[in-house]
Amino acid sequence: MAQKASVDNLKKQYEQYDQMYGLNDLLVNGVLYINLHYNATGYPFMGENTFRRGSVKVKNDNFSPVELKYDIADQQLVLKVINSFGGVSQIVLRREFIHSFTLEGGYSFEWIDNDRLPASFYQVVGNKGFRWLIKYIKYLKIPQGTQTNHYAYTKAYRKYYFERDGKVFDIRNRGAIKKLFPDKKKELKKYFRAHRKSFSAISNEDFNNLLNILKDA
Prior knowledge:
By secondary structure, the protein is an alpha+beta fold. It has one domain. The protein has four helices and 13 strands. The strands form two sheets. It has an eleven-stranded antiparallel β-sheet with strand order 1-5-4-3-2-6-7-8-9-12-13. The chain is globular.
């Protein structure tokens, strides 16, 4: 009985997916995702090895809702595709076609490739010209004290940048943002005193709050 319910659920998902996108050559355009390090501890993705609801802009077309995995280690986006038999495929979307994407939880990303930043997806908070740019990083390493063929993914690290007036500034700590906005030093100090956490642990809400403080600088 449970198996029939599962099959019916997959069939329903396919019908919904097919109705929205069908075999859209623009969206379903990539290669099958293959986990080359399936024995590694951990995952290369943002969060766990699960799909997350979101949207993706491919060229000039926006597709929403879709289910995605953001592979931080290889900076690629994996799309969940349901076929007519109820099976699930994982497609790596062609990076050169992706303009931006979102993930549930208030995350917005853009692909940025210019002479000011390393080519990568960046989480963006704010509007172009005055915004946070946050790069997520994961490494595949051999942990100390383990066998040479045992790999593990590190935790996700973040690098922070602030885009202002056509320039991009590397923000490594609270002091760096205070230095960039000396006129807001008092307000920033007050905010950081009220939110006692390391700069690397601040949330999406914090980034938005800080942006509001800095806007009229």
